[in-house]
Specification:
The protein is about 60% helix and about 5% strand. The relative contact order is 0.11. Helix 1 runs antiparallel to helix 4 and helix 4 packs across helix 6. The protein is α/β, with parallel strands linked by helices and about 500 residues long. It is a multi-pass membrane protein.
Length: about 500
């Protein structure tokens, strides 16, 4: 009983430290990179009540399947209906936390005792894994889904019951609904070497597998069918058409995100720092002892190799596409570490204290960088302070839910900070012929003509964006509006970096 209590305590220490690294300072960092798109799309769903037609800045944007947005809107609903940093990023954070747990389970299941714990610590203290886990995109959701499917398979690789197949294929379908068809492809490639071994695949060719595939296929199609029947009839983009474009056409005929053929040879070691030397040494040790190493280790290496070939074969390459390989690379590194510890223990030279110190130091460093320093650099100004100031000044004139917002080519992240509980934002593209000179009456008239709606000039806030050094757009509104602009963040003050700025015009009383 004491033995199990000790194991349970070690696991909870790992999961607790992981939660600290994932959550500390999560709500005090501005939106970054691709998560601005998820925020804008989810926000428009919440504002309009239309959850079947994704829009980005007022324009159709069915770039990813709907469930990745639904996860965000669901957490926002649980948080009171307003989209915030926590509700936006919570699904990624939970997926990362579960991924660490799944890596622990896989390591303990496939290799000698202690491998899972070491693999879990290696993954939890991998800088880029934790970094992307705190970003609201579908990438870490995909990592978690792939790990879940592989873990479920290894719970009974020779089990042919319908429930085993059904759960496995439902996991694949759910993962594919979060980002794309790689949710089916990646687990399949990983498990292919084990299925081919000893003709294992033959015992899985049965009617139960076909039934499970049909049910999982219907589950995968459900959001697209709902979007077709309940979405706006004028919506221009097809979800399934985008799936084909993003997953098949892009693989063979990439139209963006080009990278050299050696992209992942560089970025897999980078994305597994600081523990990259462990899995690189593991490869060398495994190559020297290929015939005598455990079959599960050979499977892991073959699976990683197939994933590397698949990603390299695609002409569309980006550094973070390598994220699904990271947990399995760290699992391989953990295999080497536990093997080395066992050899040292057999020689009477007990080891293991060093890695505990290393993981502890890495945890403290990640907490300091991502949980304290990085959020501090985002504080003191920027979009967060801009949104707070605009809402404060507007609330002095009227309740926030009475205001309407006009966004003129504004960065995706700014609208999230300007939620008022009122009507949805009205987006104006920079390419539109809106009055760039004149007066506020002329702009209001143009808005009414363009939108076909009535606009109350005393309850309309105009928000625009410009770059440092440029003239403030719509400056003529300052004659009868209060002007609020973004102020630099702590990081921008320190490093003198400030490019995109926003300006809001609130009508004077």
């Amino acid at each position: 009983m004491k033995f199990w209590a000790s194991d349970r305590g070690a696991l909870w220490l790992l999961l607790g430290a992981t939660a600290l690294m994932l959550c500390l300072g999560l709500g005090s960092r501005e939106l970054w990179g691709a998560e601005t798109r998820w925020a804008n799309i989810a926000l428009q769903m919440l504002q309009s009540g239309d959850y079947f037609d994704p829009y980005l800045k007022g324009m159709t944007y069915y770039d990813k399947p709907l469930p990745s947005y639904w996860l965000i809107t669901a957490t926002a609903w649980l948080a009171g209906g307003e989209l915030g940093h926590w509700s936006l990023r919570l699904s990624s954070v939970l997926s990362a936390w579960l991924s660490v747990w799944l890596v622990y389970l896989l390591g303990e299941q496939l290799f000698r005792k202690g491998t899972g714990l070491i693999a879990g610590w290696m993954l939890a203290t991998t800088f880029y894994f934790i970094f992307w886990a705190r970003v609201a995109t579908a990438d870490i959701l995909t990592v978690c889904g792939v790990l879940a499917a592989v873990w479920w398979y290894w719970r009974g690789p020779d089990d042919t019951r319908l429930t085993r197949y059904l759960v496995f294929f439902l996991l694949l379908s759910l993962t594919s609904l979060l980002k794309g068809l790689i949710g089916f492809i990646l687990p399949g490639l990983l498990l292919l070497p084990h299925l081919l071994q000893e003709g294992r695949w033959k015992r899985h060719l049965n009617l139960r597998l076909c039934v499970a595939l049909v049910i999982a296929g219907a589950f995968y199609m459900t959001p697209f069918v709902l979007s077709h029947f309940y979405g706006a009839p004028t919506y221009g983009q097809s979800g399934l058409g985008l799936v084909l474009r993003e997953n098949v056409v892009r693989f063979f005929q990439p139209f963006d995100q080009f990278g050299p053929i050696y992209t992942y040879l560089i970025y897999l070691p980078v994305y597994t720092l600081p523990w990259a030397p462990c899995w690189l040494l593991a490869l060398w040790v495994a190559a020297r002892n290929w015939r005598t190493i455990e079959p599960n280790t050979r499977w892991l290496i073959w699976g990683l190799g197939l994933l590397m070939v698949f990603f390299t074969a695609s002409g569309s390459r980006r550094s973070y596409y390598v994220l699904p390989l990271v947990p399995f690379a760290q699992l391989l590194g953990a295999w080497w570490l536990t093997r080395r510890f066992a050899e040292r223990n057999a020689q009477g030279r007990f080891g293991g204290k060093g890695w505990k110190i290393g993981f502890g130091a890495a945890t403290v460093l990640l907490v300091a960088i991502l949980g304290v320093i990085y959020p501090w650099t985002n504080g003191g100004g920027g979009a967060i302070a801009f949104g707070d100031t605009v809402k404060l000044e507007a609330s002095k004139r009227a309740p926030l839910n009475e205001w309407r917002m006009v966004m003129i080519e504004v960065d995706n992240k700014v609208p999230m900070y300007l939620q008022t509980g009122g009507t949805p934002f009205y987006y104006v593209q920079e390419s539109q012929e809106f009055p760039r000179t004149g007066d506020s009456a002329g702009l209001m008239k143009w808005l009414e003509t363009t939108s076909g709606e009535h606009w109350d000039p005393k309850r309309t806030i105009i928000v625009a964006q410009y770059r440092t050094g440029e003239a403030v757009p719509l400056d003529y509104l300052s004659a009868d509006h209060q002007v609020i602009t973004t102020t630099p963040t702590n990081g921008q003050r320190m490093f003198h970096g400030r490019e995109d700025q926003s300006v809001a015009f609130i009508p004077n009383p």
